[in-house]
Each structure stands twice: as structure tokens, then as C-alpha cells.
Amino acid sequence: MTWRTQQAPAIVGWQRHTVAAERVRAQLAGIPGGSPVRLAKRTSNLFRPRADTGSPGLDVSRLGAVIEVDPAARVAQVQGMCTYEHLVEATLAHGLMPYVVPQLKTITLGGAVTGLGVESSSFRNGLPHESVRELDILTGSGEIVTATPTNEHADLFRAFPNSYGSLGYSVRLEIDLEPVQSYVRLRHLRFHSIAALVGEMCSLLADRQFEGRALDFLDGVVFSATESYLTVGSFTDTAPATSDYTGQQIYYRSIQRQTTDHLSAQDYLWRWDTDWFWCSRALYVQKPLVRRLVPRRYLRSDVYGTIIRFENRHGWYAALQQRRGARPKERVVQDIEVPIERTEEFVTWFLDAVPIEPIWLCPLRLRDNDHGARPWPLYPLEAGRDYVNVGFWSAVDIVPGAHDGDVNKAIEAKVDDLDGHKSLYSDAYYEPEAFWSLYGGEDYARVKKLYDPDGRLPDLYAKAVGRR
Fold it and tell me: Which long-range contacts (CB under 8 A, 24 or more apart) does 439-443 make?
């Protein structure tokens, strides 16, 4: 099995990890009591403002690597700030991968666990936190505790997903890995109605195979009410030829042009990163002339994200557009989950109400476990039930008489009506009572009191919604 990698990631080993973890714990101990605490991070995959606490932040730069990979046990020990790009390089070297690999290279493992993540293996493997065996968490009280599903910190283990650093920061994670094959065969299936697409998705989830092959990956793209696609992925050890979407070719456009494709396993995992799904078009890099001028190393989601966050802070381009007569914009950057039986209703409503396309669909189901019917209280999806993640990332005009936030509030209300949830990495507008009824309420308050009794870390509502 041959993998194309840039540079082997550092495997730091236990000794260096222990020193780095203790260094961060000591930093927290050195921050005066009553002072707020945050991480000092150069990059972020959040699309909501980060409050300036006035604190320099915890330096976690030495917690960004893999500690070790045990190929026999199919387990990896990983530092909390390790990116999936580095984690995947380390595990693919052993023919293994994490159970769920979020689509963007610079998402960290700790970030995906405390902030959720989803990918095309989620219909069989759930969400990233479900393949975590145990966590070392630096809590607001200044301790590093090891949390597992069954030890004295089990409540923290279950409340950590979707807590966004409000209960503590992951220092080390022990995760399960699964074997991979060299290539992924893709079949792009076109549909002329949302009802037909959802119907086929239900059939695929029931059968777990397509054209006699195991169903390893499944996601979809909706371009309009009459043009949508499901992409079925299956591992294979052979491929007649492979495509390359890390340069001039654009992956999501290939879905419309061909019915069958092959990618290396590594390129499949990062197929969306080169163009940040389709969001790179806002920066004009999908125009052939511009794309030819951009070095390949800059065709990455984190580069685009840095540019967009700079614009969000300063608003130079928005101000220029408004001087030219354009309307102000409302940012609509969200991932939501609704039960699969309500997906057609949501997508149909969205296409009619919100002028954004394409949108991404990704089915998911919690993994079988013994943690109870609602094992993750801060994001209480039902065990044994199929959901569909719907992702949409753009901006819409604020029409006369409307206000910034109106569209997002309408989406929140619709998702709630359909017994769904939305991720909290972007703008949220919930009132406190509604928010806590959806995101853990009493469970969160109890765990917060135990592990951050002095409120050194901002609570989840303050981080996700704040003052609006």
C-alpha cells in the first residue's frame, strides 16, 4: 500500500507529551484567580466571534502531535491540538484511519470532540467523540483528569462533546482506528427531486451496500430542487486510474460531470478541503485564470478561512460593495441535523426560503453503545435513529425591512420544529431558556459546577450565543 504524504508527522512519545501537558497545567495555575481563561490559538474553524478576554491565553502549541499509534490494537494516543491532517498521515502509514475524519485538514481532534464533527462515514461510525476511549481533560479547576465512560469522571466524559471548551480542554485522547484500503470507488447518483434522493438514501442505509459493494461512505449535494446527487463510496484495493482534486480540478463540479470516479484513500478524505467544499468561489479561485496563478500549497481551506476571518473582523470588502450599491449581507454559515424522515421537508423549505446553493447532505447515526438512549446530553440525538446533517455556508442579502440575524433565526425555528439540532460553531440566536432545553441544561450545570466551580471558563451559552 503506497500513500502520498508530504512529511511524516511527529510522533512525540509519552515523555515529551507528559512534559507538554504539565507545562499547560502550570500555565493555568499561574493565571490569577478570577481571570478568564482561553486558548492562545493562531487558527480556528469557528465562525462566531471569539471574545477578547484580555488574557494572553494558554499556549497549547506543544500539544499538536500524535503520541503513538498501536496498529495491533488499532488505537492511537493523540494530543488535543493535533490536526486531522497530521493524525491521518500517522495512521495511514499503518493502513488505518480514524473512524470519522472531518473534511477540513486543520480541524483538530480535540476540537472535533468538544465541538462535534461529521463526515461520510458517520452513517456507520457516528460522530468523532464516539470513537474516543478516554480523555485527559484540563478542567477549569486546574486539574488534569482522565475521563472514561465508566470511571468516576464518566459524567464529564459524556458532557464533553459539544461543550466547546466550556468544561475544559482535551490534553490527550485515546481513539479507535479502522482499517482502510488503498482507494475509494465513487458513484455519483443524480436525482431530479429531493423526495427521490431521500428515498434512495433510506434504501442505501437499510441495505448498507450498492452494486454488490459494501457501503463505506455516503454523502450528497443539492444544487437545486431538480438537481441533486448522492455519492456512494466503497473501499477497493485497485483502481483503473485516480483523479486529483488538489490542483486545477474541482471536486464538487466533478459530481455533476461523471458517474464513476476513483481517489486514493488519502485524497478521498481531503476531497472537500481544496475548495473548502465550494466556498472558495467567493475568493474567485475557481475561475480558471486565477486558479492557474495560485500555488497549489495555498489551495487549502485554512488559507481561505484566514482571509474570510480577516474580512469578518475588518469588513473592508463589504464596505466597498456597499459603496457600489450592494445590499448588506447576513452570514448564514450552519450545519444542522434533522431526522431523515424530516429531511425532505427541511430541504424543500430551505430551497424556497434561503437563496443559498449548493448545500451538503450527510447521513449519521449514533454508534451502538451501552451509554443509554441519550448518551451525549449536550447534543441529545436519539440512539437507533437516522439523521441527516445539512450544511450551508454563505451569506444572503438583508432585504429592506429585515434585520441581520432574521434568516438564521428562521432556520433555528424550523430545525426546532422538525426535532433537529444545529451545531454551535457559528452564529446562534437562541434565548437562554430555549438554548438550555436543547443543549444539556441541568446536566451541563451539574458538570460545570463540579469541574469549573469558580467559572474560570465561560459557559456554553456565553460562548455560543453571547449578547445579541
Answer: 439/162, 439/378, 439/379, 439/464, 440/159, 440/162, 440/377, 440/378, 440/379, 440/380, 443/155, 443/159, 443/377, 443/378
- pTM (predicted TM-score): 0.93
pLDDT of residue 33: 77
Question: Domain range spanning residue 144?
Answer: 13-179
pLDDT at 309 over 50: yes
d(CA 281, CA 336): 23
Q: How far is CA 136 from CA 80, 145, 147, 240, 370, in A?
A: 9, 5, 6, 44, 21
Local confidence band at 242 (pLDDT 50, 70, 90 cut-offs): very high
Per-residue pLDDT at 3:
40
Per-residue burial over 204-220, b if 16 or more Cβ lie within 10 Å, else e, is bbeeeebeeeebbbbbb
Report d(CA 245, CA 258) in Å as an integer: 14
- How many distinct structural domains can be found in the chain? 1
Q: Which residues pair with 229 in a beta bridge?
A: 190, 221
Helix (H, G, I), strand (E, B), or coil: what is residue 415? Answer: helix
Which alpha helices (DSSP H) does 35-94 contain, by range?
Answer: 84-92
Residue 327's pLDDT is 87
Distance of CA 449 to the CA centre of its chain: 28
Measured over the CA atoms of residue 110, residue 111, residue 113 and residue 114, the dihedral's sign is positive
**What confidence tier does 48 reach under pLDDT thresholds 50, 70, 90?**
low
Question: If we measure between CA atoms, which residue out of 250, 242, 234 comes closest to residue 184?
Answer: 234
Q: Is residue 463 a part of any domain in this protein?
A: no
Contact 153, 185 (CB under 8 A): no
Whether 286 is in a domain gets the answer no
In a domain, 8, yes or no: no
Instruction: Let me know if residue 306 belongs to a domain.
Output: no
Per DSSP, 270 falls in state T
Pairing assessment for the beta strands 66-70 and 75-79 based on DSSP bridges: antiparallel
Crossing angle, helix 406-417 and helix 343-353, to 10 degrees?
160
Q: Is the dihedral of CA 400, 401, 403, 409 positive or negative?
A: negative
40: CATH: 3.30.465.10
